[in-house]
Design brief:
The protein has one domain. It is built from one helix and six strands.
């Protein structure tokens, strides 16, 4: 079971993200009703955890603009 808190505007859960050598960082994530299995992490956390780069990704944002981003692999509990 995942436990979190609900504020006036959003649901928030605390997750542990593990890096390549077992490093661990905790992140608070906002629950999105359109969740598709991916998390957005700050670039500094990606570097600190030494997450493995997989490929580039492409997305269309709500305003219709497009963006490219890097996909990295990590483990989340």
């Amino acid at each position: 079971m995942i436990r979190g808190v609900v504020t006036r505007h959003e649901g928030i859960v605390r997750l542990s993200v593990f890096g390549r050598r077992g490093q661990r960082e905790t992140v608070e994530a906002v629950v999105d009703t359109g969740y598709d299995g991916f998390l957005t992490l700050p670039p500094t956390m990606i570097r600190e955890l030494e997450l493995e780069w997989l490929s580039n990704g492409h997305a269309v944002l709500a305003d219709g603009s497009e963006c490219l981003f890097d996909l990295h692999e990590g483990e989340v509990i």
